[in-house]
Each structure stands twice: as structure tokens, then as C-alpha cells.
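forwarding from the other thread:

> can someone predict this with NAP?

sure thing
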Amino acid sequence: MPDKPLKVGLAGLGTVGGALARLMAARRDDFVARTGRSPEIVAFSARSDGDRALPLEGAVFFADPVTMAEKADIDVFVELIGGAEGPAYAAVKAALARGVPVVTANKAMLAAHGLELAEMAERSGVSLAYEAAVGGGVPVIKTLREALAGNRILRVSGILNGTCNYILSRMETERLPFDVCLKEAQRLGYAEADPTFDVGGFDTAHKLSILASLAFGARIDAGAVTVEGIETITLADLAAADDLGFRIKLLGVAARTDHGVEQRVHPTMIAKSSALAQTMGVLNAVTIDGDAVGALTLIGPGAGGAATASAVAADLVDLARGAVAPAFGRPVGALVEAERASLQRHEGGYYVRLSVLDKPGSLAAIARRMADRAISMESIVQKRAGGDDAAYVSVALITHATTETAIREALALTLQDGVVRDKPQLIRIERA
Ligand SMILES: NC(=O)c1ccc[n+]([C@@H]2O[C@H](COP(=O)([O-])OP(=O)(O)OC[C@H]3O[C@@H](n4cnc5c(N)ncnc54)[C@H](OP(=O)(O)O)[C@@H]3O)[C@@H](O)[C@H]2O)c1
């Protein structure tokens, strides 16, 4: 017989909360064998108390999760409501203030308030655990915080949003435009009715800011993340990437550079042979470079009820064993203020697609502007007519490593020269 139960207060019974209730019931014996404690959901909160056919017999319903966090007789508060502010944030603070450990999957709340919440947890001597907040079922938090603790992490790059990866994968394999693939993702439940948060890169940015903190022992700095979404990616870009041996992925990249820590989210060209490039559909993947271990990649389901509940359950097992680890790998007071590396100083190769006036000297004019900024070109390909106007052709070029400032200045000058129309498409190339 187990010594004592682990009394769980579960706030949120949606996709993840419902799956967690089912998983805890199904895996109860294993949980007991691992921890010596029997997990019991003794209290729950949702907006309505209707029957959801979940194994919650005997659990007390709270209409207000904050009241549950303040009053219920629980050993752990599991927050699966979502949202950076509002009831999730208020309830988590109430639990921590009372010395009740918290397990959450809420990346938006952690990106905005992670340090404050970690400090509260430290003061109370309890855990703030959040394996499910980044990568869903992919155990990237524990990998960075524990398994790679012997490393100086140099770089973390990943596909952290399944919606974007699904859309880009479908665009590439089915040769369907962005809008069509977005609608399909919405129909299948992979994308919200308002998809901005996902396709605009903001969800990836939240997750990246958490990974950067863990990787570099730094205070979370969500405001430091440069964010560009996938809305401007066209079939022409995907075809050009394919011709050149690349795939386009929305990557979150956090890296140590000579100028500080870079944190950026943007569509990226990566070699087709890389593990990240081969991650298709709704899957997530994260590549971590450590000085001792080298590069390793984790790939798996980044969302979905069961996969995400699997990560929440792992946090509950840790907690039942009495493990208390600093939320971001070290006490908040020991986290450094990372110097922000300006994107203007980013160095790397670039893919540029231009709509170029089809007359002698146009390409030479572009090449001259590039040379003026010491940019050397690896390839330049005139593709096909640039839309409905026969006077223009589409030109795709790849540069060798240069700086963001240099490429942007060169492109601004080609626009001024009148040989190019429309805003150029610019996609960074990443070694991965
Ligand atoms: N879904 C995924 O695949 C996934 C993956 C990774 C992380 N996450 C994170 O997990 C969290 C939960 O996501 P989800 O997809 O499970 O959300 P969801 O399906 O929308 O469920 C949210 C739950 O919260 C409840 N809720 C909302 N407002 C409430 C309030 N004021 N008081 C009490 N309960 C309230 C809802 O109650 P009702 O049921 O009564 O409406 C619902 O049960 C979010 O932080 C999300 O970012 C989700």
C-alpha cells in the first residue's frame, strides 16, 4: 500500500486537462510503483461543471480556480487553463504563495511572468514545473535543465510550433498556397480561428524565451526575441529552396554570439539533410549544441492531449518523489542578465528573391550593390516571369555569410536603382 496519496487539484479540463485525468487513471499502478504515492484528483476547476465522462469521482468542483488554489486540500496545483494573465496566473500565484507546488503547460504565462513565479516557488521551497510548456510531449525542459547540466550550451534551435510546421510541410509537398493550407489546418483543429499567434511566430517566441533562459542560465527576456511569421512564404520560395538543397522551416534560434545572446524566430532555410529539415507535419524538433555532448536533436509530438499530458505526468512523478529543482536550472538570483545581440549584427547566408526589370544590366546592377557591401554571392538564378508583368523576371540569389545590415542596405539600394520592384523576400539560411 502506498504511504499517502498525492492530492492533485486540476485546473482546466480541456484538451490537456481531460487527457491528464484519463492518463492518471490509466497509469495509476505504475505511478504508485514509481513513487510510492497514489495520485488522486481531489479537486478540479473548469468554467462549467457539466459531465465530461472523466474519472473525477469524489473530486470537489470549484468554479473559480483561484479559490481552489487558496482553499483546497491539495499537494499540487496543476494549471491547464492557459493565457498569460487572468485566472491561470492568479491561481498559480495563489498556490505558490500558499506553498503548494505547481505544474503548468502555460508557455505564455511563463514567458511573461516566469521569473516572478520561480521566485515565489523558491521562497516557498516548492517546485514550479512546466515540462509540457515547450515541445508538448518532447522532454526538452528536463533535457536542458538536467541531462545536459554538464555542458555549456552554445545554441538551441527548433521547430516549436506544430501549426506552422504543418502548413509549411503541406505547402511544400502538395504545392498549395499558404491560405489554402492554413484553412486546412483550421479544419483539422491544428490552427485556431485566429491563427496570428501561431503563424505570426509569437507562440514560438514564448517557447524560445523559456529555452534560452534554461540554456544560458539567463533571466527570461521575451522582449529580446525578434519575431517574423510564415505568412509571406510563397510556393516560389519553397521551390527555390528545393532547387538549392534547402527546406523552409519556422525556427526559433537562441545562440551565444560574440555580441551577446541572439534570440530570433523567423522562416529559415536549412539543409534538407538536417534532422530539423526532415521534421514534417505537426511534429516538433529541437537541436541543442553543448560544448561537451555536441549536437543532439529531440523530435516528437509538440501538441495534442495525450502527448502533452505525458509531460505533465512526468512532472507529477518528480513531485511525488519530493524533487524540488529551481525552475530555470539555477536559483533566480543566480540567473544572469544576458546581453542582447542586435539582429543587425547577425551573420549568416541569405536567400533573396527579387522581382527584377528584364533588361540588360539589371543583374549587373544588383551584383554591384552587393559587391559594394562586400557581399559575395554563391548563386544567382533567374527563375521565371515575375508574375503577370512580362517586363519583370523572378531572380533568386544566395549569398555567402554576411551581416543583416549589409544585406538590407544592399537591397535598399537596388530598390532605389529602379531595377527591382516590390519588397524583396529575404530568408536567413541557418546551419542546422
Ligand atoms: N492543446 C495542446 O496540445 C497543448 C500543448 C502544449 C501546451 N498546451 C497548453 O496547455 C494549456 C491548456 O491548453 P488546452 O489546449 O487544454 O486548452 P483548452 O482545451 O482550451 O482547455 C482550457 C480549460 O480551461 C478551462 N477554463 C478556462 N477558463 C477558465 C476559468 N476562468 N476558470 C476555470 N477554468 C477555466 C476550460 O473550461 P471549460 O472546459 O468549462 O470551457 C477548459 O477546461 C494552455 O496553457 C496551452 O498553451 C496545450
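DSSP finds 14 helices and 17 strands in the chain. thats all i got for now
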